[in-house]
Amino acid sequence: MAETIVVFVNTKSGGQVGAKLVKPFQSAGLMVCDIMVKAPEVWLAELSSKKENVRILIAGGDGTVRWVLQAMEKAVVEFPIAILPLGTGNDFARVTNWGAGYAGQASSSKRIQNLINQVNGGVVRNFDCWNLNTKVSGSDESNKMTMINYFSVGVDAKAAHRFHSLRERHPKLFKSRFTNQAIYGWYGFAIATDCSPMIANTYKVTVDGKPIKIPSNSMSLIVLNVSSFAAGVNLWGKPNPKNKQNFSETQPDDGLLELVSVRSTLHVGLIKIHLARATRIAQGREVKITSIAEHPKKLAYQVDGEPWLNAPLDITIELEKKVPVVFKSKK
User: Fold this and answer.
1) DSSP 131-161
2) Beta partners for 83?
3) CA separation for the pair 314, 292 (Å, rounded)
4) What pLDDT score does 244 carry?
5) What residues contact residue 29 under an 8 Å CB cut-off, 6+ apart?
6) What does the alpha-carbon distance between residue 146 and residue 317 come to, in Å, rounded to a whole number?
7) Radius of gyration of the chain (CA)
8) Which listed site, 37, 76, 84, 258, has its alpha carbon 20 to 30 Å from 236?
9) Nearest to 65 by CA among 258, 272, 303
10) pTM value?
């Protein structure tokens, strides 16, 4: 039985492409919720009062998905979600089979109807949703966030932060995914030889309560829930089943996190073109990253592509719940 499709649009996503989708979706008879006009939790409260079977199509990027999931938690409601990817990396869309990014396919009524059919025909699977608790080292200041794709600290987050800061200052420069990725790539190249403190001298790590050794050349620590990072890079890869570490492949519904390290942003680029590999460190159900050194400068962090600078943080990541996600059929 077909369910009601409701579209949550981030009208600022995709170089304001999201704003251009509002009228076509409304013309197709769909309820369109502009989450830049009213917060997602307000729309969710209205939907829950209607007692309908709803699937939410999110038109936005990974950050928008995380925003809507956090709103569901606040509103104490839950609906299956699908994604029309308008962001830069779109790692959530890649692992749920919705593709690397929207390229104008939903502009006609026929294509919109096709998209509606795909959302209705998709398979709902449970998707791990993680609590990321942060605490400023040596203080009582703490914060809680939701993580769906990945968390990182180090030079990759530093590049993401520089990209994000430029986009905030000059939004008109960011009109296409290609331009966004080119600028992002430039920042990655610019700090390829960054002299930030080595992660091994900055943090200690435990996975499921066991101390984990960090490679001495690590410049970033990355905790993964999915097999796509920074626009499709599979950092974890496919572990050899005969390996004594007994690692399994990354799955978004297995209740496991994967911990890897990289040596630089250039290293990430080489992994993307299959000329290098990230260092697999550990796999488990809870990751704790604890600061062991003071820093005069703030460090760079990111969650699902959303970066920020902060005084050194103690991080705990553990499973919050499983959320229903619509995976596009591969037929």
Assistant:
1) EEEEEETTSS-EEEEEESSEEEEEHHHHHHH
2) 58
3) 9
4) 67
5) none
6) 9
7) 20
8) 84
9) 303
10) 0.89
Strands 81-85 and 150-154: unpaired
**Where do we find the tokens 């005084």?**
311
Q: Is 300 exposed, middle or buried (0-12, 13-18, 19+ CB in 10 A)?
A: buried
Give the tokens for residue 278.
């990230």
Under a CB-based contact definition with an 8 Å cutoff, are residues 56 and 82 in contact?
Answer: yes
pLDDT, tens digit, 9 for 90 and up, residues 100-117: 888 665 567 788 899 999
Locate 130 and state its tokens: 């993680």
Please tell me the predicted confidence (pLDDT) of residue 9.
96
Torsion of CA 203, 208, 213, 218, to 10 degrees: -50
Per DSSP, 200 falls in state: G
CA 170 to chain centre: 23
What is the rounded CA–CA span in Å between residue 64 and residue 68?
Answer: 6
Q: Encoding tokens for residue 210?
A: 């066991």
Q: Give the closest residue to 59 by CA, choosing from 3, 117, 110, 112.
A: 112
Helix (H) / strand (E) element for 170: namely none
Query: In whole angstroms, what is the distance from residue 79 CA to residue 56 CA?
Result: 7
In one letter, which amino acid is 14?
G
Q: For 19-29, what is each residue's pLDDT tens digit?
A: 889 999 999 99
Rounded to whole angstroms, how far apart are CA atoms 43 and 57?
13
Q: What stretches of the chain adopt beta strand conformation (E)?
A: 4-9, 31-34, 54-60, 81-85, 123-136, 142-147, 150-154, 203-207, 210-212, 220-224, 257-262, 279-284, 286-291, 299-303, 306-310, 313-327
Closest CA to 10 of 67, 77, 91: 67
Q: Are 277 and 237 in contact (CB under 8 A)?
A: yes
Query: Encoding tokens for residue 199?
Result: 């992660």
User: What pLDDT, on a 0 to 100 scale, did the predictor assign at position 189?
Assistant: 53
Mean pLDDT by 10 residues, the chain (331 residues): 87 80 92 96 90 91 95 93 93 95 71 92 97 89 93 88 69 60 54 60 94 91 95 88 80 97 79 83 97 79 92 94 95 68
